[in-house]
Specification:
mainly alpha; 3-stranded antiparallel sheet; 11 helices; 3 strands; 9% strand; globular; metal-binding
Length: 280
Amino acid sequence: MLSQERHHGWGPTIEVLVFLFWLASGASYRVVSRAFSIPKTTVCRIVHRVSEELMGILSRVICVPATAEEQQEIGQGFERLSQNPALRKARGAIDGCHIRIKAPEETDTGCYRNRKLFTSIHLQAVCDHRARFLDVYIGFPGSVHDSRVLKHNGGYPCLQRPLALITPYKRPLRDERQRVFNRYHSKARSVIERAFGIMKTRWRSIFLKALEVHPSFVPTVVASCAILHNICLGAGDELPPEEDCREEDTESEEGVQDTSNGNALREELCAEVLAGVPRS
């Protein structure tokens, strides 16, 4: 993965170990420096270097499957998750979460303060039925609403065609059919919360406290963690997400506007979901 060109005497194996130790421990560069007997400035360069190398393989590790067989496998996975054949049409689950950051000193911290009053940067992601990331979009300040992040993502023009974004019915729900649809929708969608939970559990020292790097470097660190998350899942290294690592009460449902086309598609899917409910 790492190129051989470097300006210090440490080999790529040591570089990877330093980077993984930093991610896993959440330690400062000074602590990592002492642990490896490497100058602090070199530790900083290694962390930046390895994360940039990981960014070079992002499009190969985090990507939407291209073949019909892979797409069909994802659909079958969502059918199993939701326990409803209508959700076989799903090709991914999308949500956002907030990554805690240290308040930047050189700029107005207000734009980074989210509705829960801590400073953060948005991570928006799409995952498949196995909690493997298919797309990540990182970098908006925490005060920005989920719906705006979605609209500024490069995938937003695709929300109607070729794929539609199907949200649950908004509260207050009108009838039993909407409650049934939301229940099955939630079963399928919960995998993205699980994906965030697994990633935060694996790198809990990074994610369960404020990330103490410059805000401009946060997207690279988070993307590196998402890449390693996919690599670990691909190698069969799975972790159960811990309860305190699960994302709470996101604002996505209230922020995405229902359109006439979207409502019509949801009504069609709702009828198919109801038809697929087992009869008692």
